[in-house]
Amino acid sequence: MAKQRTSAGFLRKNRHIAYILPWLAGFLVFRAAPMLYALICGFTDFHLFRGISETGLMNYRAIAADPAVGRAVLLTVAFAAASVPLRLALALLIAALLAKRFRGVRIYRTACYLPSILGGSVAAAVLWKAMFRDRGLVNTVLGRLHLPAVSWLSEPHAAFWTVVLLRVWEFGSPMLLFLAALEQIPQDLTDAARLDGAGAVRIFFRIKLPMISPVLFYNAMLGFCSALQEFSAPFVITGGGPRGGTTFLSLLLYRSAFTANEMGYASALAWVLFLLSAGFSALFLTAGGRLLYYADEGGGT
Amino acid sequence: MKHLRRSTRMKLLRYAVLTAVSLLMIYPLLWLLAATLRSNTELFTETGLIPKSPDISGWKRAFQPYGGQIDLLHAALNTYLIALPKTLLTFISVTLTAYGFSRFRFAGRRVLMLMLFSTLFLPQTVLYVPQFVLFTRLGWVDSPLYLPLIAPAALAGDTVFVVMLMQFIRGIPKAYDEAAKLDGCNSLQTLRYVLVPQLRPALLSIGVLQLLHTVNDYMGPLLYVKSPARYPMSVFVKLSMDADSGFDWNRVLAVCCAAMLPQIVIYFIAQRFTTPEAGGLKE
User: Fold this and answer.
1) CB-based contacts of A61: which residues, under 8 Å, 6+ apart?
2) Largest interatomic CA distance in chain B
3) DSSP per residue over B166-218, as a string?
4) Is the per-residue pLDDT at B53 higher than 60?
5) In Å, how far is A157's CA from the nearest CA of chain B?
């Protein structure tokens, strides 16, 4: 009797868990179960049409031995390491210039944000391909300026930077977040510094930048993790070429899973990508815990 | 005097940098628009923004179907058949989840919250392989309702939005909830009549982000939409590029331009409703 009452009481007390049940169901079915499945699958040679005939570590051995995977990992990390700082630096510069009321501020803001609306779309990638092809817009402009043409899409290094540039072009969303953060800084702080004779540049680096460092850090981490997954731009612009110059891990993953149908191998690769981004997130979080300034020590959970 | 000169110099520098960057940002888009009105012969040799001899044949051909199965307008329609239900269901599921987590205590809350945050670091690319196997088993691949694209979002799968909304809910004083409770609202009514009206700006920006994200998504439809008649715009644009680039660029670019326009329009409409002041969440 008493037991029944307490379990009814337990249900009553926790009834509001109902609000999160849809999320929990989705988490278990669409996230946790697939991840677990991929973990198991990575130790088999599961082929979408031929099934499983072997189990063991062979996928991970093959991954470790395959120079193409090593190169893809390096390229993926290089892509993140090149595109994220450039993108954030540009976003920060423009946000710093826009965080003030002056004539035309809205027009500039819109102009800088416009490319990001198309962020990651195939249409933007196709536009990029049209601009950077051998006889495309960029080379025509270079020709007008009497500069030598670059074979943007047929030279591995140039192709890599072409894809980086597309990502930098879409710097609008970190810019908006920086703007919002800059506008939250109390005016009296900067006023006080100005009275003390500090110039705008100095105020920016000594006061504003430290104060928005959590936002900067958050953007760096999320930007890095999403750059590690870049897929549609290289897939559309270069198809992973030339000579593998833009074959990032996601493309390798796509090919092994959906062209070769080798789900076992692809699952193992997916876990490699997962561990890579988890590793970088952990690195960011430990570094961030030391370096950052929080106005209201407000932690996450 | 010296101070004045310094500030005018700063002002000029600000305008110069902003103008240069803005022009660089906008130029490719304006060139794209101009390019769709040029013939294929002068398309890449002209760098200006005004076509010398306007030619709308690219646009005319952009509306012709590929293989009789899919054309531009159907692709656009398909895109919103995915994006609109997905955004609507995202609103509902994300609001419920954020509300549950930020306003109530229940057993296991801390662990569940950790699980929620952990999914922030779980890249979608990693999930494609096992999810594809799952959706194949469920028979959802090429579903006319686009289930593999919509179902995860309908169950608050995009946890970034949950975390975002939790931040906003945290900014609303709990006193509102308590007042509503005293007035006889149950917790769902409190959410509906007290919190949701205050969350409107946040929900609007979540809606716009989700809508644009879905419209731009390529890998999802690439994997889960198999019949050409159901292709959304992103797949259609890639298809038209593969079919025509090399000789018919103005058609390809017209398709591109058509694919970009709705998103730009959505952005401008949404901007009218979100002024920076509309947030009003800081005490």
Assistant:
1) none
2) 76
3) HHHHHTS-HHHHHHHHHTT--HHHHIIIIIHHHHHHHHHHHHHHHHHHHHH--
4) yes
5) 22
Residues in chain B: 283
pLDDT for res A190: 86
Q: Hey, what's the torsion of the CAs at B23, B24, B29, B35, to 10 degrees?
A: 100
Which chain A residues contact residue B103 at CB under 8 A?
Answer: 16
Compute the C-alpha angle B40/B44/B50, nearest 5°: 85
Measured between CB atoms, which of B106, B125, B151 is closest to A229?
Answer: B125
- Cβ neighbours, 10 Å, residue B14: 17
What is the set of domains in chain B, with CATH numbers?
2-62 (no CATH), 72-278 (1.10.3720.10)
Q: What is the mean pLDDT of residues B88-107?
A: 95
Partner-chain contact A140 B47, CB within 8 Å: yes
pLDDT 10s digits, B126-159: 899 999 999 999 999 999 999 999 999 999 999 9
CA distance A76 to B22: 29
DSSP label at residue A101: -
Kindly determine whether residue A122 and residue B151, on different chains, have CB atoms separated by under 8 Å: no
Give the residue from A14, A21, A30, A97 with the most B CB atoms within 10 Å of its CB, the best one to mutate.
A30
What does the block give as tokens for B253?
Answer: 């670019």
Does the pLDDT at position A201 exceed 60? yes
Partner-chain contact A22 B101, CB within 8 Å: no
Considering only the beta carbons, identify the residue of A38, A120, A277 that sits closest to B129. A38
Task: Give the span between the Cα atoms of A273 and A285, in whole angstroms.
Answer: 18
Residue B105 has which token pair? 């205590």
d(CA A262, CA B210): 32
Contacts of B223 in chain A (CB under 8 A): 258
pLDDT class of B91 with cuts at 50, 70, 90: very high
Model ipTM value: 0.88
Six token digits for residue A253: 């993953």
Record the tokens describing residue B26, joined without a space.
């906008």
Nearest to B218, CA basis, from B119, B90, B124: B124
